[in-house]
Amino acid sequence: MVTEVRVMVLRAPGTNCDRELAHAFEIAGGKPRITHMNELIGGSQTLSDYHILGLPGGFSYGDDLGAGKVQANEMRLRLFEQLAAFIDRGGLIIGICNGFQVLIKTGILPGPARQELPHVTLTNNDSGRFECRWVKLSSTPGNRCVWTEGIEQLEAPVAHGEGKLVAAPSTLCRLRAVFYYADNNWRPTAEYPANPNGSVGNIAALTDDTGRVFALMPHPERFVRASQHPGWTRRNIEEPGAGLRIFQNGVDAARRS
Amino acid sequence: MIYRIEVMPAPGLPDRRGAALLKDIADLNLSGVNSARVVEVYWLKGNIDRAAAETIAREALTDPVTETFRIDEPGEKTTAGRAVLVAHNPGVTDPVEETILKAAADLGIALEAARTGRLYLLGGSFSRPTLDLVTNRLLLNPIVQHAVNEQSVIFGENPAYHFQLRQIDLPDGDAALCDVGKLFCLSPDEVRAAAEYYAKAGRKPTDVELETLAQSWSEHCVHKTFKARYDFDGQVIDNLLKTTIARATNQLDKDWCLSVFVDNSGVIDFDGENAVCFKVETHNHPSAVEPYGGAATGLGGVIRDVLGTGLAARPIFNTDVFCFGEPDMADEELPPGTLHPRRVFKGVRSGVADYGNRMGIPTVNGAVLFDNRYTGNPLVFCGTAGIMPAWAARPGRQSPGDLIVLMGGRTGRDGIHGVTFSSEELSDKSNEQSFSSVQIGNPIVEKRMTEAILKARDERLFTRITDVGGGGLSSAVGEMGESTGAKVYLDRVPLKYSGLSYAEIWISESQERMVLAVPPQNFDRLLEICRGEGVEATAIGEFTSDKKLKLYYDENLVCDLDMEFLHGGRPQLELRASYKAAAFPEPTFPCPARLDDDLLRLLSRWNTCAKEWVIRQYDHEVQGGSVLKPLVGHNSDGPGDAAVIRPVLDSGRGVIVACGINPAYSEIDTYRMAASAIDEAVRNTVAAGGSLGRLALLDNFCWGSVKDEQSLGALVRAAQACADLSLAYGTPFISGKDSLNNQFRVGDRVVSIPHTLLVSAIGIMPDAERAVTMDFKGEGNLIYLVGETKAELGGSAYYAAHGFIGNSAPAVAPAPAKASYQRLSAATARGLARACHDLSEGGLGVALAEMAFAGGLGARINLSRVPQPGDIIRDDYLLFSESNSRLLVEVAPADRADFELIMESSAFGLIGEVTSSPRLKVQGLNGSLVIDQPLTELKNAWQRPLKW
């Protein structure tokens, strides 16, 4: 039983959701530390000292060569063994928005992690625009992701321009989807704007074979308090914000391991 | 070797950029172009083989699932179309270059240089003029880009610079002297003062000395018009700023105002432990000629103002207010030399969004206004607020011996003479003249710098900080060094490319730079932090104790100015100002029997219609502090009055922000225009649950010409209104900025913008969760109108829709307004207001419609219950008057007595109730319905115009 769950919130130049991600882990009972890529590459920080790796949203390296691309290459080419070992020994990973893009482009998702170019990607929204709006998410039955245990439905904001999941048909069938974009009746939907980007299979979140690596485009760390919900002035929203459950799940799973 | 790599969508996958371009071409009403494809082009330079170039292309530049690439094959020509390859001009920063070099290094490949471009493949059958039109209107902006041809050089050589001291002759004759002054943008009085100074010193000035004086004495840097001595129709006003706005703030003397008018932004107390600062800037002229880059660097600049306040603040939100020509302006009406308003709008929006989103700062509040007089001279206001520990709230102070450290981006030729460009009028030649005055931003450099500065602040490594903005190092170091003296070695400034003269280095306005005063013993630790964040920092000199500004280049003294002369030697401007009341024809049309069409038309006006297209493309949730979002209601698409955020995530305390702007009234009377803007900003705050208790204001004046007495009279009246209202409401101004001479010259015709004052309000809410949204919440709830409705339709949207201006611009009666705001704040603090919305453009009718469709609930209203002095007998006036200080409040029937008791001594009326039937029904004075519309119609009218 782990008493102190250490969380590395990893940031690169241009990452900008690191503080709120660390805050979410903190109120979920974890002990987060915001760590710069340079510290990890330089060796002053190592993943083996942590239980959870969090990859926050933002625009790593400006997303200059595609969302998450440069950070993904950096991790794939310089940190691959450390990452693979971290997953092998039971480490948990969450990637949100840009963090999802990074995990996809390193090949850690859909996994298993291999050091080759991936067959799945996140690309430009069908709308052709960056958009910020709240979406509804429905979980896929029996997805076995430790991060989403007990969560059937969730609301959270998206804020991205490249969130459309695209995969070759051969790969699509072995993706482990965790959340679908859903309509007002919580049914999976391809309709814009409930599905904000036109993701194939309406997929909003993925996990890997272990169920411990999890990534999503929406931002649950922006819904850890009721008054972050857009409807709080109209109806009663329960405290804490429903997004917090994800971080509590992660911390609990790390504690059990 | 140089390799050219093209990256394009994989076969069978959609080309979204191409599709978007085709749509933009269709918007130009051009025929013949029936397909468009967009290809990304990269040029890589280095001692590498083709296999290495291929590795970079495959692994770093191409998405393996959605894209494909090719190397060094000429761009595919469509059968009957044309290809246009667009690249950055030589010397223009390519912000992607650094990322490409880094990505190549991760692959173990060392590149020397990289450039990016875009290849457009247009298919169809069209003429050369059509192609030129598409190229010039949509594909490139000659300020920063060009179409590549056989003669183009992608990796140009920069010339070396050979030092040569330039000394300037100041001739004896006054006319000749003034001509020299003109070359440096010094007024006759200013160049005379300089001549006197140099005569006393017995030497000639150097070019960089005159540049320093011109930058430091420019309107942009010292606001000389505001500090001038006025003869206002016989009344003497010695320093307009000091006698109006600053006087009011001094008189109010609020203890929660921690730093006002002395720093890069104004600072107020947040919770005793932290302070919040706020600044709004304009970047009008650069945005007129290069909307994307101009707006992006406008936001980048104001973010640095916040970083450079006190001992550095962390940005917590952005605001944006834009004024453009109307998006549907006919091409024939477009003045030569201007960009179409639609293009300016799209460019500005994406410039602000790209910079703000990448910085991770939520854009939470703003406005977009349209008037064709803004076509040649659009207004782009960008604001940023920040938070800092209380100990860092006040400006720092350096000691002699502290190092002058330049941090962040490198210095290039960009933005030279930006402040003098921004202080002059625009003309159809501006596009050519302003080549060097537009800067290119790189938000990731600013983000890195921000992280490094905040870390260094927390370790207290520097004693003072300021941003490098208008006037470049000249202003930044010149101002910092005033109290001590400073010497700078210009050859130590890191450059983007060779060839800059010492004077160019000194006045360059390259982006993403800050200057810090660092005690020598802290410098190594600062460098360590900078290395960790990937930021460059260089000691370029030190602060001295001789009260002199000394600049060196390779050990040559190139500037030796007394700080006292630099900061105290500018002669005060003497101006004449005059005021004459407006006399426009009063409207003569009768009141229509039904007002449905008028309401629908008002909802569809550019100024009133939904701005969701803009708002959604900003991240307004990042940082996780969102409480009231810019869009509210049951579908999150109603127009919120103010935004509320919690900047400290484990605290319930909030910051509320709103704005007010009413240029439509300024033709009638700028006093009323300014008073209305203040009232609107305050009223928006009150509507969202804020209060006058700890509310501070910012002013941003954008004036037309200040060369004639009438315009200056208008400026004086607006400043007087600011002082009067600030005192009356007890809301101090804490910071401000002015941008003058906003006009556009075509030949001998001058189009001036309407005098425009933006007032931004920032307040502290002890409990952010007391905030109120404007959408109707429940059937059967009561609808109150607070405040009196008067026949004040001068400059209103309703008159404008009927082709009139009128003379009865809305006034503000501050005493009753203040009392009703305070009562209403007490009601919202007790949770008695279920919804609250301010009445502004389009008056009661528009506000009611907005509350109804935002809440998805109807309303039944009776105009005979509208509180009024009793002289209004027209339904249209009651419904569309724009009288100030009015709000609509939704109250549950159970709270009726409590609410009415609190509001007792204010003017208010119970005018109707919320209904479940989704219709807005308004009963006129004679009892018959004047409006009966389904919400869907009202909402469609409001959403349609900007559904792009």
TrEMBL record, chain A:
Origin: domain of life: Bacteria
Gene Ontology MF: a single term: ATP binding
Keywords from the UniProt entry: ATP-binding, Cytoplasm, Glutamine amidotransferase, Hydrolase, Ligase, Nucleotide-binding, Purine biosynthesis
Enzyme Commission number(s): 6.3.5.3
InterPro entries in the cross-refs: Class_I_gatase-like (IPR029062), PRibForGlyAmidine_synth_PurQ (IPR010075)
GO CC aspect terms: cytoplasm
GO biological process, one term: 'de novo' IMP biosynthetic process
Broad enzyme group: ligase
NCBIfam families tied to this protein: FGAM_synth_I (TIGR01737)
Protein name: Phosphoribosylformylglycinamidine synthase subunit I
Organism: Dehalogenimonas alkenigignens
Lineage summary: Bacteria, Bacillati, Chloroflexota, Dehalococcoidia, Dehalococcoidales
UniProtKB/TrEMBL annotation, chain B:
PurM-like N-terminal domain: residues covered: 263-388, 640-740
Record pathway: Purine metabolism; IMP biosynthesis via de novo pathway; 5-amino-1-(5-phospho-D-ribosyl)imidazole from N(2)-formyl-N(1)-(5-phospho-D-ribosyl)glycinamide: step 1/2
GO MF annotation, one: phosphoribosylformylglycinamidine synthase activity
E.C. code: 6.3.5.3
InterPro entries per UniProt: PRibForGlyAmidine_synth_PurL, PurL_linker, PurM-like_C_dom, PurM-like_C_sf, PurM-like_N, PurM-like_N_sf, PurS-like_sf
Subcellular location: Cytoplasm
List of catalytic residues: 220, 283 (proton acceptor)
Sequence positions that bind substrate: 304, 439, 509-511, 739
The keyword Transmembrane helix appears for this protein: no
Keywords (A to Z) from UniProt: ATP-binding, Cytoplasm, Ligase, Magnesium, Metal-binding, Nucleotide-binding, Purine biosynthesis
Domain Phosphoribosylformylglycinamidine synthase linker: 186-224
Catalyzed chemical reaction(s): N(2)-formyl-N(1)-(5-phospho-beta-D-ribosyl)glycinamide + L-glutamine + ATP + H2O = 2-formamido-N(1)-(5-O-phospho-beta-D-ribosyl)acetamidine + L-glutamate + ADP + phosphate + H(+)
Domain PurM-like C-terminal: 400-553, 779-923
Enzyme class: ligase
Binding site for Mg(2+) 1: 281
Chain sites annotated for binding ATP: 279, 699, 736
One Pfam entry name: AIRS_C
GO terms for biological process, alphabetical: 'de novo' IMP biosynthetic process
NCBIfam families per the UniProt record, alphabetical: FGAM_synth_II
Family label: Belongs to the FGAMS family.
Protein function: Part of the phosphoribosylformylglycinamidine synthase complex involved in the purines biosynthetic pathway. Catalyzes the ATP-dependent conversion of formylglycinamide ribonucleotide (FGAR) and glutamine to yield formylglycinamidine ribonucleotide (FGAM) and glutamate. The FGAM synthase complex is composed of three subunits. PurQ produces an ammonia molecule by converting glutamine to glutamate. PurL transfers the ammonia molecule to FGAR to form FGAM in an ATP-dependent manner.
Quaternary assembly: Monomer. Part of the FGAM synthase complex composed of 1 PurL, 1 PurQ and 2 PurS subunits.
Protein name as it appears in the record: Phosphoribosylformylglycinamidine synthase subunit PurL
Organism: Dehalogenimonas alkenigignens
